[in-house]
Design goal:
It is built from twelve helices and four strands. The chain has 220 residues and is α/β, with parallel strands linked by helices. It has two domains: 104 residues, no CATH class; 84 residues, no CATH class. Helix 5 packs across helix 7 and helix 9 crosses helix 11.
């Protein structure tokens, strides 16, 4: 190979690495599994322990439950609310729970009643490459220039559980409820907030903040 082309190889490699969204994966398997699981509940088919444990074992669900639920009893309460909300046989009980404004029942009723909107949000917003760019752009607004980088091999996951988001070594995981409702205020704002945790990983902050670091402290 001519030396001229050999000199171009490092540059080409850098250009490929800099491509937006390269090596970024968005895992929506947990959401698809949720809709499949709840479709059975709508038919009054009981939720077996095996099906529930298999659902919780999905990678995105596993991280989200570990970080955003308060132990096994909390998860069990969520499962019970899921059954009551989606199974027609429990409609009378559901009305009692909703009248009492019990949070898991209110939350899951939102997932149920607005399922089409959640599906559209996932298909029309999250699945588009431009959405990933909004995450970075939104995070950069509050970060100093040294943190305007890209996260290598970043994994993103969406779940149809709870109302939270978490940034961990395994990646960033968002509940559809939290992401969709935050997007009504500003598209991508929740994703940007969690993205900033990845971008400042290992960065040391001092008090008072150095010039340009004020945004970092505001986001924490």
């Amino acid at each position: 190979m001519p030396k001229f082309y050999l000199r171009l190889l490092p540059l080409l490699a850098l250009l490929l690495l800099a491509r937006p969204g390269l090596a970024q994966t968005i895992d929506t398997d947990a959401v698809a599994a949720y809709w499949k699981l709840t479709a059975a509940l709508r038919r009054n088919e009981p939720l077996t322990d095996a099906a529930w444990q298999g659902f919780l074992a999905l990678p995105a669900n596993k991280v989200y439950v570990r970080e955003c639920f308060n132990g096994a009893e909390d998860v069990q309460r969520y499962r019970r609310a899921l059954e009551v909300v989606y199974m027609p046989r429990y409609d009378s009980l559901l009305q009692v729970k909703l009248k009492a404004k019990l949070w898991y029942y209110v939350l899951l009723s939102d997932y149920k009643q607005h399922e089409q909107e959640y599906q559209a949000f996932l298909a029309e917003t999250v699945a588009k490459p431009a959405y990933l760019e909004k995450m970075y752009t939104g995070a950069y607004e509050y970060l100093p220039a040294r943190n305007h980088t890209r996260v290598a091999n970043l994994k993103l996951g969406y779940v149809a559980l709870g109302n939270d988001a978490t940034s961990q070594d395994e990646g960033i995981y968002y509940s559809l409820y939290a992401a969709r409702h935050a997007a009504l205020i500003r598209p991508g704002i929740l994703e940007a907030h969690e993205m900033h945790h990845q971008l400042i990983s290992g960065d040391k902050l001092v008090s008072p903040a150095l010039p340009g670091d004020e945004g970092l402290l505001w986001l924490l």
